[in-house]
Amino acid sequence: MDNVKNTGAEHIEFPEMGDTLKGSGTVTVPTSLQDLTPEEIQRREAKLVRKIDIRLLIMMLIMYILNYLDRNNIAAAKLAGLQADLNLRGDQYQVCVSILFVGYLLMQVPSNLILNKLGKPSIYLPGCMVAWGVISCCTAATHNFAGLIVVRFLLGFVEAAYFPGCLYLLSAWYTRKELGKRTALLYAGSLISGAFSGLIAAGITSGLNGARGIAAWRWLFIIEGALTIFAALIAFFIVPDLPRTTSWLTDDEKVLAAWRLEKDIGEDDWVDNEHQSMTKGAKLAVTDIKTWLMLGVIYGCTSAGCVTTFFPSVMAGLGRNNIDTLLLTTPPYLIATLVVLVHAWHADRTGERYLHIALPPVVAIVAFILAMAGNNFAARYVAMCIMLGGIYAGYVVSLGYISNILPRPATKRAAALAFINCLSNVCQIYMPYLYPDSASPRYIAAFSVNIALLAMTIVIATILRIYLGRLNKQLDELEGVDLARACENEEHGLPGRAVAEGFRFLL
């Protein structure tokens, strides 16, 4: 075996493969891989990743598009007459928007811990999708404020399972350096949803209004909910379980899928998870300062992103009719999708995280200032077109970064992903009240709050960068420590084996 140093029956050194694990570079190689050269292993790994992308990522993207569509179609329904037909007065519409996130927040952490415990995402996630599709359809049957409140709360309660659950599932299949662009591709689903929701809503509201005696906004919920249910039934046959338990990989592929993640972090996700309770994982997550710093980083972006819930209303302030307004929402989302994907690709290519998180909010701040500055159509529309890219480019890199800096144990990662996503969405409860119709078209209060919170994101991202840099220096001092001794303790929330193998935080 060329370029391979045999150090014993169970350990083989791969000098060329030390981009992830510094230090000793010694990892335990499964028996089925020990007769292969590093180049052959890399080829097999690349083939496996492509297979995972096709099977997992595409379905996750489709599911998230529909998740976001069912959550936010109320904005288009408002323009199509929902507010008038249900006789919503005062801030009742804002209450209906925000109540979804009460259910959303309540269920996120328990849902991810349940998913981690069950280990059956192939059943759990599509099952939740069927439920929210049914509830979305039921929105069409509401006739008053109380009915809309109930279905919106239930929708948030059930939808809460998907996004943190999906992030957890991705982190169980991809290495730290692969997660960035995969998370971006996933989140592009929400932007694609935003881009085409306006086109879909324009088609439905202009072509089906009054069809069979049903209002256009009711058709919107019926059609999009039914589409969700159909996709969920397909997802039952496509969404995989975890690397060691899935049925669509060969035995050798299962071994490779699990080993490459162990090589990335220095700990076996599956074995480690067997010894961790849900309560233990939650405790580890909330007592790690990195969890709270990541929450601060993501909170500002999530708050600013609340503008998307009211994007049709904000765009209506440009003075166009309802159909034109819905059509005008498409270009900003398409631009944001392109920006997010390129930005995440560059972050993964360079391995750099801080600047990719801290710089996009600067662009978003400029966009919000331009949007507040005046009523000129061209200037405000340009601001809208760059606003979403500025908000979400750094946000998406941050989402993948959670699993980068809180990688193991699996229960801790699951809890941290749900905990951060949960608390960062608290803003969704109060932000709708900053977008009353009376604030149109400049929404000075809402945009000012967004600017302040984006500035907070930049500051906390800087603090996190400094903190992780110091941790890496401390880990440098532990490099090469005896494996047996290291495994007796944890350093900086990392398994002892990861410390001994030379783990470093991406900066």
UniProtKB/TrEMBL annotation:
Keyword flag Transmembrane: yes
Keywords: Membrane, Transmembrane, Transmembrane helix, Transport
Pfam families per UniProt: MFS_1
Domain of life: Eukaryota
First-listed, main subcellular location of the protein, grouped into a coarse class: membrane
A GO molecular-function annotation: transmembrane transporter activity
Localization terms from the record: Membrane
Cellular component GO terms held in the UniProt record: membrane
Membrane topology: Multi-pass membrane protein
PANTHER family in the record: AGL026WP, PERMEASE-RELATED
Family affiliation: Belongs to the major facilitator superfamily.
Protein name: Uncharacterized protein
Protein source organism: Aspergillus tubingensis
